[in-house]
Specification:
Distance between the termini: 35 Å
Structural class: mainly beta
Shape: elongated
Largest sheet: 16 strands, antiparallel
Order of helices and strands: EEEEEEEEEEEEEEEE
Strand content: over 45%
Number of helices: 0
Helix content: under 10%
């Protein structure tokens, strides 16, 4: 099992897991929830935070179960730490940090069994920094983003045995360097070389 980057494990001590990788990785492959920008105050219970201009916001389902909670400013923009919960149990579905309604800092997505599914980092709404996806307690994808684009080494692993399946060098969202694919036994299957997104012959 490959070691997981330690940068976000301080937020939650349990887990890791799931999802399937696709052929060509892009920033759009990363799935995040839609809980950005402002909230609808009609859907939340709002309680002023003494000594600040913030309010605690809590959204409940019809049965009274907390579905989401955090803080908002006077403009109803999300601020600080937010937690979203799964609808079918009491476990958290995600932990995120916001500044002025934009993702800023760490985001952890968690599956319905309480295992970490993804960990990533944002800078004012753009992916920026390490990204890790898990499947059944194994690292499935490791990547790095810069200003919303893949930048650095992208790796895919076979969750069944931990072997490296593919690794690609990216610069500013484009393939720039090698693109290597591996056999099930970990041996090199094929290798291509790219420069600024163009395949070199």
């Amino acid at each position: 099992m490959h070691k997981v980057l330690p940068w976000l494990f301080l937020l939650i001590t349990a887990c890791q897991q799931q999802t399937e990788s696709t052929a060509e990785p892009t920033a759009q492959d990363v799935v995040i929830d839609e809980n950005t920008a402002t909230i609808d105050p009609q859907r939340f219970e709002l309680t002023p935070v003494e000594g600040t201009d913030l309010q605690t916001a809590v959204r409940r389902n019809p049965e009274g179960k907390v579905m989401e909670m955090g803080h908002v400013d006077a403009a109803m923009r999300k601020q600080g730490d937010w937690t979203v919960y799964h609808s079918n149990n009491r476990l958290p579905a995600s932990f995120a940090t916001f500044v002025d309604g934009k993702y800023h800092g760490g985001l952890i997505n968690i599956d319905i069994y309480g295992k970490v599914d993804e960990m990533m980092h944002y800078n004012m709404g753009e992916l920026d920094g390490p990204y890790v996806k898990f499947r059944i307690a194994y690292t499935e994808i490791e990547a790095n983003y810069k200003a919303g684009k893949l930048d650095g080494l992208y790796k895919e692993y076979d969750f069944r045995n931990g072997n490296l399946k593919r690794e690609i060098e990216f610069t500013d969202g484009q393939k720039d360097g090698f693109d290597r694919q591996y056999n099930d036994d970990g041996s090199l299957l094929i290798e291509y070389t790219y420069e600024n997104g163009e395949l070199l012959e």
